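ok so for the tutorial part 2 we go from a plain amino acid sequence to predicted structure tokens. step 1 is just haveing the sequence, like this:
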Amino acid sequence: MTRAAALFLAIFTGFTGLVYQVTWQKYLATLLGSHSEATAAVLGIFLGGLSLGYSVFGTITTRLVDRAAARGKSPNLLLVYGGIEAGIGLYALAFPWLFRGMLNVSHMLPHGNSGIGFIGDVIVAALLIGPPTVLMGSTIPVLTQALSRSIEDATRFHAFVYGLNTVGAFVGALAAGFYVVPQFGLDGTVFRMGIINLCAGAGYAILGMGRRSAPAPSAAEPPGEEAEVSGAAIYLLVALLIGFAMMTLETTLIRLAGLSFGSSQFTFSMVVAAFVFSIAIGGLSVSGLSQIPKGILVADLWALVAVLWGLYFLLPQAPYWVYLLRLTLEDTNEAFYVYQFTSFAMLIAVIGIPVFMSGVTLPLLFHHLRREYGELGSLAGRLYSWNTLGSLLGALIGGYLLFYWFNLHHVYRFALAALIISAALTTVRVYRMRTLGVVGVLPILLLLAIQPPWYETILTLGVFRQTERAPDAYDGYENFVNRYMVPMDNRLRMYDDGPNTTVGIFEEQDGNSTSLTIRVNGKSDGNTSGDYVTMTFAAILPAIMADENKNAFVIGWGTGMTAGTLGVLDTVEEVVVAEISRAVIRSAPLFDRYNHNASRNPKVKLVQGDAYRVLTSSERKYDIIVSEPSNPWVVGVEMLFSREFLELARERLAPGGVYAQWFHHYETDDETLDLVLRTYASVFEHVSVWVAQEHDFIILGSSGRSAALDFYRVVERAGKPPYKGPLSTMGMNRPSELLVRELLPVGVLHATELEGPLHTLYHPILSDIAGKAFYRRAQGHIPFTGYGEPARIGAKNSMWRRYLDYVGGRLPDEERSAVIEATLGYGRPHGISMLAKWMAESPDSPEFRTAHQSALMWLRRNIKDVNDPEGILEDLRTLYGENQPGIGKSLNAEDAWRLSEAYTSFYFHGAPFNEQALRGAWARCQNQIRSEEACRARVAIEAKSNLKMMLGDEASFEKSVRSCMREARAGPQFCQHGEQQAAKLLRGDLSGFAGREANPRSPL
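step 2 — the prediction. this is what the tokens look like for a chain of 1004 residues:
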């Protein structure tokens, strides 16, 4: 009973150990950065601490056994282990305070030389997580010795400890990525894990105090002939090689899974969990063997080699099979979890058997070695110390250094070669075939070296982002490759697997011109043609807005177009670019013909490193900072959207400086957009949002009021070199075509009620929310701000309206038509609003008729199921009226609904609708409400369009609801239900009203 309880508690200690690893990685990204060197350093410290712990506690366990034996007693190792677990728990409870203290120490270290500064921070990181990881290394040696009653009993209970502890780690891997860290944050997670460790420690202590003494297992009985072995060093070397191989394979498969599923935190968690689960099952399987034949270890290792060799040819097909899986599931939240579960099952089906075999090896090695030693703790400690040392080498060499010179398939072969050598060494040792083993392994290694490389095109094209079903998608992998991949082979200009990213450069044909696309980990991160406006606008807009623009800092190189645009401005003296990927840096010269030779511009300084760390170590002030990271669901990117990083960027801005942040509408949702905007507004006092292209926008944060609101300076600079040229290439030939892109003027965002949490380094939630939105292929919408205080501030600070006042209140018809055409060209509905305002002014010119036809075409193309585009324009013209709309026309609830829909969908701060016109519609509609359904429609409309801000405060809104119920002649029960529904609506819950699904944001 005691042993069963102790093994049960081992599940929880394994659970906390894996959660700690994930959480500490996120903590230390603040200290070291999120680049590959930092990841390798943290994993190295963690594995190094475990290795040291296995060795140290193996020796300590031996001494405790010897001392107890000298006194004729049995050592109370469960009590000792309870104290160790309690120590881990206490350390975890104190970790948040220790981390912040050591972070202050790091800030005091000199970081002028990035290499020396990084080494100093690695030492600080080792001091932080080294002690608890050493304590975690006690589990295997101490519990193996404590729970084994005899030498013959040792193998079985060693496998139990190893397997069940690993089962806990499997659960921890999934829980940390999918729930615990997003739900509780870093501090909350380590606190809860600390409590679990304290409870486990108390449990072991109670078990230790209640257990009767029993003689410790020893080697007093002579070893049997079957188990007799010698040359323990060979087996320890085999353990090291297996650790190296499996950690290298895990790193390689995480990278390959990122290219197949997308490199999100969910993919990382699934691969780690699949590895840990298979290892756990392998370890537990040994505990069920009553007898262990002499050759089973040799057979297991050679079978492992054979299976992994076969997988070498299957794994590159993974993107295709993931693509098929994605096609079978819907874009819903429920399907997201089905997708993750099915993906995990696919991983187990593919890598489960070989990883299961690797999980068998350590218990089998322990079995071969156990009779050579007089105690078990030291044996288990040495074995796992060497294996973990191999894992450490796998993390540093196989998971990092080898990628400086080799690609994924090469690194996979290095891991397989290590397993071949370990299998050969085991064969030589067990069967004493020294010459045959050496001679036999050389041809196998040579054959491995000449295997064909993996198919690079399918790995880099990001098939996981494809949403359309190919007509012959299910006709098999070969047909899919020949039909869709082979034509892209001659367009692949570069492929490189760097230490943390896989980069592919493709040449695209666009009519008679060509462009280049950079794909990082399978995701397109820029095209020199399709993304030209966004990348150029991200440079020019803050340069125009900032007080000065001598020094610029750019986050992410990509195509180099943003840095190149800044680099050719006469006023800019230096552009520092922080790029995390060495592979992207290697590709930089390929884009020189598109980005003003940015890689050869002496003003452009390209720095390899994590942007957070580069900015932290810099003491300079920048006039312009531009952030163009990848999408926030990508691992490591969410740090750049955190409040702490934004605060750091604000501190690095010179007076009057501007921080420009790219973001997107596609593959995201309203919750993600709100979180990004809310966090941004919590840091910068002056925030505006500008449209770059249809699905891209730029968020500007200014360190001074003049940089945010100096309208005259913007107009003046836009018309002069060096800004006029780049603006013209983007189709902005007039100041009006620039200013119309202002989506949310300064002050609007702060006046808008965006309630909810912030995204911080200590509670990172963005990648979780964004990852789920990416799966759903959702479309995000900027929050509706055309009511109350946001609308008032928007009208006051809108640069477009101020420009109209500047030019006399109205643009010439030709310019007005050109602006409307341009606005519709980049997919925004503002052009429709401006045309409707023009209609309200009774226009009669050829330019109006041209713009009118363009507006009708745009409505037919962009509004689903539109039957009456002229009716939409007429509704919008009505909303620009001076008084109540539709004089002499009877309005009902449906008419009011339609006008509210138009109001929220097409509102533009530069040309705001007349609130009185919409109020008038509701006043005329009110007398028509005579039914419960119409009344409910009215309530839904008012909540949907946030009209409670127009019609009065919440009390007035609820009063109008009750009035509506009385007018509908409903009974008291319905009135009470209506008030409950109104309360729901005030919280933003619009389900179940008027038989339709209301969206409080623009459907566009």
